[in-house]
Amino acid sequence: MIVLLATTENKNSAQSVFVEFQNTSGWPTDGIAFWVGIITACAGFGGIHSVVMLSKETRDAANNIPRSLSFVSPMTQIYLNSTHNVSVAVFLQVMTFAVGAGASMNLVGSAGRAIHSAALDGALPPVLSKIHRKWNAPVLALLVTFVALCLICLIYIWNTTAFFAFLSAFFTLQMVSYIIPIGLLMYRSIGREFELGPWQIGRFRVIVHTMSVVWCVLLIIFPSFPTTLPVKAPNMNYSIVIVTGIFALATVLYFAYARGRFTGLKLETLVGISAGEN
């Protein structure tokens, strides 16, 4: 970003960047256009919860996992237009690709770990919980994750509308996964004794939790909106179809397999590792 800022010749004014608002979406108000478009800004924070999936393997997880989350911060033609140098543009693109590749490996690892944990707790078939003897990793769970991600990426070649529906559904489901524990934490901590963990914000927790719930609700609603009006088949947002399908699949999986097998997270393992045991 510093390179682009330094090499770009024609820069917009501060007035244009920080004050002016251009609504080309077709939505009648700037407010709706803002919230519909904010999903792009949120993309930089997509998957920051991945480290949580590795809680069972983390020593002193109650401290180290929140600490890791607090340090997460959120184009070739653009590079070329700014630098006017093919070599520099290619270098920046390679660096971007390297960062993306690293993020993808992190995504595969955390999602595979989530599948492994779900299988270990009885929510998925136990074969997905097996650890490879040589590599000491849940290889089958990782392969399932890798294949699923590849198939989703291939959708982009077939239909970009369907691909972006998956992206919108990802943010919606991510916010759902956030709002449930935050909401339960708020419910348990109001009007009753509640033991706080070592990583907490004291008296400000009610304010922060309330703001988080409101933020999650907004990001559950607006990513389902079409980005532009009038709505036609190519620009329709079908994320609600993906979300509904995933909830339906989870419901069928629960009643067809997990009911009676899945009794919740096995806390004894998590507590043991959090306390520093091997």
Write a structural description:
The protein is an all-alpha fold. It contains eleven helices and no strands. The protein has helices spanning 2-7, 14-18, 30-42, 61-70, 76-83, 86-120, 139-158, 160-189, 205-221, 239-258, 267-274. InterPro entries: AA/rel_permease1.
Write the SSE topology:
Layout (H helix, E strand, L loop, with lengths): L1 H6 L6 H5 L11 H13 L18 H10 L5 H8 L2 H35 L18 H20 L1 H30 L15 H17 L17 H20 L8 H8 L4
Helix pairs in contact: 5-6, 6-7, 7-8, 8-9, 8-10
Distance between the termini: 42 Å
Indicate the overall shape.
Answer: globular
Low-confidence regions: 269-278
Count of extended strands: 0
Note the run of SSEs as H and E. Answer: HHHHHHHHHHH
Q: What structural class results from the helix and strand content?
A: mainly alpha
Largest sheet: none
CA-based gyration radius: 22 Å
Q: Approximately how much helix is present in the residues?
A: 55-70%
Tally of alpha and pi helices: 11
β-strand percent reads: under 5%
Q: What is the arithmetic mean of pLDDT?
A: 79
Summarize the structure.
Helix content is about 60%, strand content about 0%. The chain is mainly α.
Characteristic key phrases:
278 residues, mainly alpha, 11 helices, globular, transmembrane transporter activity, transmembrane helix, membrane
